[in-house]
Design a protein that fits this description.
about 550 residues, alpha+beta, Beta-Lactamase, Phosphatase 2c, domain 1, 3 domains, 6-stranded antiparallel beta sheet, 5-stranded antiparallel beta sheet, 15 helices, about 30% helix
């Protein structure tokens, strides 16, 4: 297959004609676009008054007109005067026919206008906050529109240790290749693509090390980066005043070598790439930090006493790994088990911060063997002492209270006083005796548990609702009951049964029917029933969902 050749770029060419004395006879639309002068203003003017106004340029025009009059072509790159800081390539040649007219063709030589691929690339790069995807966007923009090969690198210590430092001259640097893209002929010469994710230790004299140490582009014909390329350009990737990596471009022999105009284009691409890659790096760091913290907030493996089965399911709202719901199972010294389900008001990190404090405290209090009412009383005092400023604003707004919890408070303890802060959390705490002895349960503003008997019949336990934690209730009443062998106790949070489109009574009815059906299914397990019920009642993801099922063996 013949090597690909780049077609000449005719965009930006401008043509005009001069008489033998140097006055403009005709002025094309492209000339008007290139030089910013319309035809009526240009025609009739001398070229030295219109374009060549810089020092020494009148003599240059005289020489050019003499060359054309002698039948020769004159070409030169001119800058300064009315042409400004840019450089323009001119070609003047004699036109056939009488009169000795001159055909002039001009094109901007430096700096060139940004081609369409660069405009499209800079608009697209950074649209994703994924590090590999952002680097791939840069590579796809560069090949084949600008180069025949490209590789994008990021400083390894920046990813591994978050060390933002300028690489020093004379020292090699470890970098990680985020993305690479090769044209067909270059890939054939290499035999394989450059794999992303590979860590490379650069020598101190390599193009990439030089570019990162100096912060400047480096041009070379010996890059030793990709076989099949004869011209290389290494660009440092600088973001927020620090070098975060580098981009290396290569061109095959069939393509023109990199020139100063290409450096300008690569600089524009590298600047956008550096910001996009650094943003993606920072986002990835924060995401990994949040995930590590959130994983630490999730409960560990429960220690379930003999004679009991316990299953649980948790679905956080939105993209959060954890929210305000919590559940815990604590094996007590006397062989009984404490089951806790709670719901801190609000969503996201604020609710999770409150949740982890209450869950940790509840676990510690339960291990001390305190009765349910006393555990809730101490949690209530702890919640009341929390700083409201650290809470989710929606969680401390009385108008944002769970309407079910508010209804139960009003019915059980009287209407809350005006101006009282909203509750921090609701909670239900049960102590189960696997041997079939008397069990106890108390709740703080929580929805009542559902009991599923061995024959599939269900009932909602009639418990005093109590005030939510944080309102200083002072006492929580404990209800005694027997969890007969084969019966299942369901503890849950309001997200399972209540939404804006589903009233609480309808949700409770659905929960009772789903529990009865799932537990009666032949061959069903407690874990399977828990997952089935959770998925069946899950609706629009408006609130966190927690369901815990506990059963004593028959």
């Amino acid at each position: 297959m013949l090597p690909r050749r780049r077609e000449p770029d005719l965009a930006g060419l401008a043509a005009f004609t001069l008489d033998p004395g140097g006055r403009v006879v005709s002025w094309s639309v492209t000339a008007a676009a290139l030089f910013g002068q319309q035809a009526p203003a240009a025609i009739g003017q001398h070229v030295c008054d219109l374009l060549m106004t810089g020092p020494g340029q009148r003599e240059l025009v005289g020489h050019a007109l003499a060359e054309v009059a002698a039948g020769r072509v004159w070409a030169a790159t001119v800058a300064g005067g009315s042409l400004g800081e840019g450089r323009f390539a001119f070609r003047w040649e004699p036109m056939a026919g009488p009169g000795g007219a001159v055909l002039a063709v001009a094109q901007r030589a430096w700096p060139q206008r940004a081609p369409s691929w660069l405009s499209e690339a800079t608009a697209r790069i950074g649209s994703s906050l994924d590090l590999a995807e952002t680097a791939s966007e840069v590579a796809e923009a560069a090949v084949p529109g600008f180069a025949d090969a490209v590789a994008i690198y990021v400083v390894e210590r920046l990813l591994a240790a978050d060390e933002l430092a300028w690489p020093r001259a004379g020292l090699g640097t470890a970098v990680r290749r985020l993305a690479a893209r090769l044209s067909g002929q270059v890939e054939a010469a290499n035999g394989t693509a450059l794999p992303p994710g590979e860590v490379v230790v650069l020598g101190a004299d390599s193009l990439r090390s030089q570019a990162m140490a100096t912060g400047k582009p480096v041009l070379s014909s010996d890059g030793k980066i990709a076989a099949g390329c004869t011209s290389f350009l290494a660009m440092p990737l600088i973001a927020r005043g620090a070098v975060v990596g580098c981009a290396v471009f290569g061109r095959a022999p069939a393509s023109p070598a990199f020139n100063p105009g290409d450096v300008a284009l690569a600089s524009a691409l590298a600047a956008r790439a550096a910001v996009g890659i650094d943003n993606a790096r920072l986002y990835d760091r924060e995401r990994r930090t949040a995930q590590a913290l959130q994983r630490g907030l999730l409960p560990g493996q429960p220690d379930i006493p003999p004679g009991m089965e316990v299953a649980h399911a948790y679905l956080p709202v939105g993209d959060h790994v954890v929210g305000g719901d919590w559940h815990d199972i604590i094996r007590l010294p006397d062989g009984r088990a404490a089951l806790i389900v709670g719901d801190a008001m609000g969503h996201g990190p604020e609710a999770a911060a409150v949740m982890v404090q209450l869950r940790t405290a509840a676990h510690t209090l339960a291990e001390l063997g305190l009765p349910p009412g006393q555990v809730l009383r101490k949690l209530d005092a702890m919640a009341a002492a929390m700083d409201p400023a650290a809470m989710d604003p929606a969680a401390i707004n009385p108008a944002a209270m769970n309407p079910t919890a508010m209804a139960m408070e009003t019915a059980g303890t009287g209407t809350m006083a005006a101006g009282t802060a909203a509750p921090f959390a609701t909670c239900v705490y049960a102590v189960i005796d696997p041997s079939g002895g008397v069990s106890g349960i108390a709740q703080a503003g929580h929805l009542p548990p559902v009991l599923v008997l061995p024959d599939g019949a269900t009932e909602v336990l009639d418990l005093p609702p109590g005030l939510p934690l944080g309102l200083g209730a002072g006492s929580f009443q404990v209800t005694r009951f027997n969890l007969i062998p084969g019966a299942t106790l369901a503890l849950y949070t309001d997200g399972l049964v209540e939404s804006r489109t589903r009233p609480i009574d309808d949700g409770l009815a659905l929960l009772r029917g789903a529990l009865s059906s799932a537990l009666a299914e032949p061959g069903s397990t407690l874990d399977g029933a828990c997952q089935t019920v959770t998925q069946l009642l899950y609706e629009h993801g408006e609130d966190d969902i927690t369901l815990m099922l506990a059963r004593t063996r028959q």
